[in-house]
Amino acid sequence: MQLSVLGFGCGAVGGFMVRGDPAEQERTVARAIAAGVNYFDTAVQYGNGESEKNLGRVLQKLKPANVVVGTKVRLPPGEFGRIADAVTISLEASLARLHLDRVDIFHLHNAITETGGGSALSVQQVLGDVVPAFERLRQQGKIRFLGMTAVGDTPALQQVIDAGAFHSAQVVY
Predict the structure, then answer these.
(1) What contacts 151, CB < 8 A, 6 or more positions away?
(2) How many beta carbons lie within 10 A of that of residue 24, not counting itself?
(3) What is the pTM of this model?
(4) How would you class 172 by CB atoms within 10 Å of its CB: exposed for 0-12, middle for 13-18, buried for 19 or more?
(5) Pick from 100, 97, 90, 45: which is nearest to 67 by CA?
(6) Does 173 participate in catalysis according to the annotation?
(7) Per residue of the chain (173 residues), what is the pLDDT tens digit?
(8) Which member of 46, 106, 134, 166 is catalytic?
(9) Region for residue 107 given its phi and psi (left: phi exceeds 0; alpha: psi -120 to 50; beta: otherwise)
């Protein structure tokens, strides 16, 4: 997969794809694509799905070739007992909002720590539950690549990265 040096963030920072004017969203995305931007990053957490809805609407109208779309799942602690189902339900809802059959990168948006706790997942939960759920979705053709947002404790993140299960990591810079 070839990504542009710069991606188009559709998050709440600035809020453009969450609460911007629809015509201006379309013009801005079209201009970014014309300038060579091909990666669009969103998440259900960005405006409670509004970012995904707006990006989906714009991409459906523009029909650009070769854009890469990444979205995310953040599992609430109440869903930790049924991770596979929660991941699948989240992705299906994201695909519907985005008007897509698949996303290019599906990121885990939870923090990762050695033992988990609160809203953080443990290394074991990530490798034993999240990764298999992501892999099933990949085998079904609903995601191309597995990603994570790489937040949490450094030693835990290193364990997950060393396992080689994820294709990409968004790193705080």
Answers:
(1) 110, 111, 112, 157, 172
(2) 10
(3) 0.95
(4) exposed
(5) 100
(6) no
(7) 899 999 999 997 778 899 889 999 999 999 999 999 999 999 999 999 999 999 999 999 999 999 999 999 999 999 999 999 999 999 999 999 999 999 999 999 999 999 999 999 999 999 999 999 999 999 999 999 999 999 999 999 999 999 999 999 998 77
(8) 46
(9) beta
In residues, how long is the chain? 173
For residues 134-154, one letter each, b for 16 or more C-beta atoms within 10 angstroms of the residue's C-beta and e for the rest, the string is: beebbeeebbbbbbbbbbbee
Which tokens hold the place of 25? 């969203």
Which residue type is seen at 92? Answer: E
Instruction: Return d(Cα 67, Cα 65) in angstroms, integer.
Output: 6
